[in-house]
Specification:
CATH class of the largest domain: Alpha Beta
Number of domains: 2
Number of strands: 21
CATH architecture of the largest domain: 2-Layer Sandwich
Largest sheet: 8 strands, antiparallel
CATH topology of the largest domain: Alpha-D-Glucose-1,6-Bisphosphate, Chain A, domain 4
Oligomer: single chain
Order of helices and strands: HHEEEEEEEEHEEEEHHEEEEEEEEHE
Distance between the termini: 43 Å
Helix content: 10-25%
Structural class: mainly beta
Bound molecules: FE2/S2 (inorganic) cluster
Length: 306
């Protein structure tokens, strides 16, 4: 089915890549970018420079300097500008070159890097790298109501479509020896039903004790999960292996952002119920190593909503 395979691709000149470029994507946990710092990031097969100006404003611009192509993220942040480490060309937050050492001002005026819209929301930095005007920014009111959010990110070595199309029945089997079942036996749902919606698909798993887990898939890159309870054990090696068992209703929203067509980053934003918050503060969440060029390095944070 060659036409289906096209949806798996992420490059700028592919069917799947053009589709994914019509959306806003989270690219980094906001807490991981301090004012005055830059990071290289890669999404949908393209590399960029993400930096936070000294004012606190994040900016996304081209990966390389327009002069001789040095990777801009190794440069310096000055105010809301970034200065290239090779010959000192300086660009403002709109990508406009504002200084070329040893040349007069007219040279700088002729040089401009491409930049991309950036938004901070729910503890994440989002961007839109598609053509034309960005679409309306998506909002998730359930996660905006004050209090704390848990934010976690990790990379999977699979195409983003594989990450999205998976079904819930695999969990008690494929993840039988994982932290999901550290303190309880694997439970197989007695019933799974699904319904197509305007947003994508709703999948409901019913268990023998009457609990219903709801999993909403917002194609092509969002998953919302609601469960009567959840547990999570740290993946970090060594002593820091704690388990958080949540006894209230647990809600999470997960965004799948592919660095390329062989990997996908999952970013989970979760609202812990009040009963679990004190445990969350002392618990260590997953710390999984990412492949090179991944924007999401061992990402976990508890953050105030913005
Ligand atoms: S390569 Fe950036 S200033 Fe020369």
């Amino acid at each position: 089915m060659p036409e289906l395979i096209e949806l798996f691709r992420t490059g700028p000149n592919t069917v799947g890549g053009r589709y994914m470029r019509t959306l806003w994507h989270p690219i980094l946990i906001a807490a991981e970018l301090k004012p005055g710092w830059a990071k290289p990031v890669q999404i949908l097969g393209e590399k960029f420079t993400l930096y936070r100006g000294e004012s606190g404003t994040p900016h996304l611009t081209a990966f390389r300097c327009a002069h001789r192509g040095l990777q801009l993220s190794v440069g310096w942040i000055e105010g809301d500008c970034i200065r290239c480490r090779f010959h000192g060309w300086k660009y403002d937050g709109n990508g406009q070159c504002v200084e070329v050492p040893t040349e007069d001002e007219s040279t700088a005026k002729t040089v401009r890097l491409r930049t991309y819209p950036v938004r901070e929301y729910l503890g994440l930095i989002f961007t839109y790298i598609g053509a034309g005007r960005a679409p309306d920014f998506p909002r998730y009111p359930d996660f905006e109501s004050g209090g704390e959010l848990w934010v976690e990110a990790y990379t999977r070595a699979c195409n983003f479509v594989i990450n999205m199309e998976n079904d819930p029945v695999h969990i008690p089997f494929a993840h039988r020896e994982s932290e999901l079942f550290a303190n309880k036996p694997p439970e197989v749902p007695v019933k799974v039903d699904a319904e197509e919606t305007d947003w994508g698909i709703d999948i409901r798993s019913t268990f023998a004790n009457g609990w219903v887990h709801t999993n909403q898939r917002g194609w092509p890159n969002m998953t919302c999960f609601k469960s009567p309870r959840q547990q999570h054990r740290s993946h970090s090696p060594g002593a820091c292996r704690s388990t958080t068992i949540i006894t209230g209703v647990f809600k999470s929203i997960s965004c799948t952002t592919p660095p390329d067509q062989k990997r996908c980053n999952s970013i989970v934003n979760a609202t812990p119920p009040a009963a679990a918050k004190s445990a969350a503060r002392t618990s260590s969440w997953a710390k999984r190593s990412c492949a090179a060029n991944c924007a999401f390095k061992t990402s976990t944070a508890t953050t105030k909503r913005t």
